[in-house]
Each structure stands twice: as structure tokens, then as C-alpha cells.
Amino acid sequence: MTRSRVAALFALAFLVLFCFSGVTATTTVKETTAAIDMPLPQVLFSLSSASILLLPITICAIVAAFIALVQGEENVGMLFAGISFVTFALFMVFFAQEKVNSALYTPLSDALDALDVSFRKRDVTKIYTSYSPATYAALACLAASLLLSALSFRRESNRRALRRDLLPYAYIGPHLFFFVVFFVTPAIYGVYAAFTKWDLFNEPVFIGLENFKTLLFDSGNTYYRQLRNGLWNTVKFVIYSVPFCIIVPLSLACALHSRPRGNKFYQALYYVPSLMSITTVTLTWRYFFNVDYGIVNKFLGSTANWFTPPYTWIMLVVVTVWWCTGGTMVIYQSALASIPQDQYEAAAVDGANTLQKFFNITLPNMRYPLMYTFITTVVAQFNIFGQPDILVGFTNQEANAVLLQYIYENSVKKQVAGMSSAMAVILGLCIMAVSFVQMRIMVRNNRD
Question: Could you read off the pLDDT of 212-227 as tens digits, one per residue?
């Protein structure tokens, strides 16, 4: 067995030992000592200590190291094994040094209550922590995986190979770090929170599928109604807005591609809204179309309330298209510039008119950019939040309330984070299903 395979086995052993590792916490209140044992997987999902955020990085890094080592890429495996070893060691140090660890306080308070000790939180002045032997064994497995994957650097060829293999990670390293910290880690915790009862302040309590049962089957529950109303409004918004988010930028790109006078000015003008935040965009449109002091109503002499039916969906779509057009238009301009001009010249010789050139030359050559922008636009519009939240909120009897509004309202304002996470998981599954269908269509077009 090669050295990289042995190192991969140690990486796998860490994942196994991690499941059996744990921490022992003790505290003394009013001459009564309470002790609890908490496994590290439970610590990982306690969501109450900053040092716990090192654990997802550790697990992601060792999984990446395992994959690299199985494929025989020892230098890459060494890099990720080293990251995993450092982050796990830092977790053990920082977690043990916390004076009153929030992740351990709740189970210790339950243990003190079981001993009939009446106390306040300020009475717990120090929580002493120690790790189980399996935890140190897991750390040793990380060290063994790191040492076995490390090459001898006495040879110049090994040093050159190290630079060649690790140089790409020097470029993507910062992005990869922030991706794990700000995307992978919250996604893991968000999915876990969907199976808990959690108010954002106390420890989440695992309740299994209860949240999903309430959302999907309890017709008398408020959250059942919110899920259906919010998801249906989200789907309606996608249906209304996506065609215009494709057609309008494509039309502008084709118009600018003909090089009219001032085309650079118009290109910049159309692109400027995409540089603004959604808050700036929506507030601007809200002030312009305000029923009392809006410029549009004053100019037209109208008393229409543009943010009530039947104008609401129109305003939401118009604002979204105005905001999103610039970025998509630039993609289409680049695609148009890559189409060979001799195809248009040959079509002109054959007597093709403008529409025939567009449908038989332009669109077929833009198939991939169109499919890409279609997929990304659908995913983006499924995540609609800012426009309806700022423009209409929950007015009009929640006729325009989308699912992300309910998720934000329940989690942040009402502190029903578990139920909100379950709604978010359902929304994520819907987006994944739609994206899967779109990707299948795209692959089929590629084969054709």
C-alpha cells in the first residue's frame, strides 16, 4: 500500500474517531459539583461558541485531503491535512480556554437543576473542560495523515512538484476559505436548524421532522398557510419576471451591437442600475411612484397607488428588470461580438432579412450564454426578497408576500428559527429541482 493511501486511511480514521470524541465539562456552584459529557458531533451543532466554527473547516479540509490522497495527490493532501490539523488543534485550545462556555452552560444548568441546586447564571463563574482520549486520538490521526503525506524536500524535483501542485491553491485559497466559512458552514447549520426547535437565544432542541410535518400537512397552522402563499407568490414572480430579464437585455445588446451613435453612453447608462444595491433601487422607485408626493403622479396628475393591485406585480417586475438588465446585457454583448461576421455576410448574399438572420444565426450562436443566463436568472428570482419587502411588505392582505419574507419575519422578528430554517430548506429543494431540470435540458442541447 502506498504512503498516500495510508495517509488517506488516517484521514478516514479521524472522521470515525470524531464521531466518538467528546468533551467533559464540570462546574461548582454552592459547593455542588456537576459534570456532563458532550460528544463533539453535538458540540458541532450547539451553535453557541465562536470556536466551534473551526470544526466545519476541519471536517471540510480533511474530506478534501482524503479525496486528494486517494487520487495520489500527496502535496494537495498534505496541504488540506495541515489545515485540518491546525484548525482542530486551535479548536481544542480555544474551546477549553473559554471561561463560561455557552455551548456547555445549558447542559450543565440542567445537571444542576437535577441536583436541586437553585442558582443564577452569574453564579457559574468557571466551567472546566477536558477532552476524551478519542479526541486526542483523532488529533493524532490528523498529525499522522499530515506527516505521511509530506514529501522529502531535499530533492529539487520534489520542491518543484510542491510549487506546481500548490500554486493554484495560493490563488483560490482566500476564496475557498470564505466559501467554507460563509457558505458551507451556514448551510450545514441551516439544514440542521430545520430539524430543531430554536429561538436564536437558547440551545436548539432536535425534534426530527416535526417542522416539516407542520409545514406540509397541518392545514390549520399559520406556517402551513405561509409556506403555500409565500412559495406560490415566489413562483408567480419567477414566471412574470424571468422572460423580461432575458428578452430586454437581449434586445438592448442587439441594438447596441449595431453601433449606433452614442452606443458607449447608452451601454454605461443601462449598466449603472446593476451597480446599485437593491435597497437603493427599490427606495428610489418607491419615492418616484409614491401616491402622495411621487414625481410620477405629480407629473401625470394621477392619484393611482402603484403599490396596490392590480399594479403591484407590474411594479415588482419593472423594478427587477431595470436592476438586473445591465449585467445580463454585457454577457450578451460579448456573445454577439464572438459570432463570425462572415455568417451574416453569407446570409445577406442569400437574401436573408434581419429577422431570419436573428433566428437562424444569432440565437443558435448564443445558445450557451442564453441557457447560462436563464439558469442563473431563475435561481436569482427564486431568492426574491428585497423588492417586495421594501415596496409592499405584507400589505394587500399578503397578496405579494414571498417565501423569503416569511422566513425573515419568523426567524429574526419572531425568533422561530427552526420553522424558518425548514421553510428555507423547502425553498432550496425547489430551486435545486428547477436547476436540475434546466441543467438536464442544457446537457441534452449540448449533445444535439
Answer: 999 999 888 999 999 9
